[in-house]
Amino acid sequence: MKPNFEQYKDIPGTTIFTIELARQGFHLNQFCMSLRTEENRKRFLADNRAYLDEWDMTEEQKQAVIDRDFQKMLDLGGNVYFLSKIFASEGLSYVQAVSTMTDMNVEEYQQMMLDGGRNIEGWRSKKERGEA
Question: Which pLDDT belongs to residue 47?
Answer without folding.
Answer: 98
